[in-house]
């Protein structure tokens, strides 16, 4: 199921992306970009990262960048309920929401799943991508 998600995904919106090359919230999206995915940075504190214009919120992403296949969250668990509201207001909605290691919120996941959105919590998208689709296999 996870491997299929990677194979069907083209565009990943990364909420909480950082512009410091030593941050996981930089290295992970950089890896995913290098694997051929389109990255849409979302962070109100930066104007661009990885040479790509950053957006202050998911709602600010222009329609020409849709569809977004996966929303990848690098935000503390307590921020997830607010992001769920934003994700559910997107049109079209993403296929999946992925929260990085240590990030999870049961009620938020339940709401997203009830809306037909796949939820993967508390896992590193880069580690799982390497495990399932290692470039040298």
Strands in their spatial order, largest beta sheet: 2-1-5-6-7
Q: What's the pLDDT, averaged over the residues?
A: 95
Total number of strands:
7
Tell me the helix content: 25-40%
H-E order: HEHEEEEHEHEH
Structural class by helix and strand composition: alpha/beta
Tally of DSSP helical segments: 5
Low-confidence stretches: none
Distance from first to last alpha carbon? 19 Å
Shape: globular
Rg over CA atoms, rounded to whole Å, is 14 Å
Task: Tell me the β content.
Answer: 15-25%
Largest sheet: 5 strands, parallel
Oligomer: single chain
Characterization of the model:
By secondary structure, this protein is of the alpha/beta class. Helices cover 33% and strands 18% of the residues. The strands form two sheets. A five-stranded parallel β-sheet has the order 2-1-5-6-7, with helices on both faces. Helix 3 links the parallel strand 5 (70-73) and strand 6 (96-99). The model has no long low-confidence stretch (mean pLDDT 95).
Features:
five-stranded parallel sheet; alpha/beta; two-stranded antiparallel ribbon; 5 helices; 137 residues
Q: Quick recap of the structure?
A:
With 137 residues, this protein is α/β, with parallel strands linked by helices.
Draw up the topology in text:
Layout: H1 2-8, E1 11-15, H2 24-34, E2 38-42, E3 48-49, E4 52-53, E5 70-73, H3 80-88, E6 96-99, H4 106-114, E7 118-120, H5 125-133
Parallel strand pairs: 1-2, 1-5, 5-6, 6-7
Antiparallel strand pairs: 3-4
Helix pairs in contact: 3-4
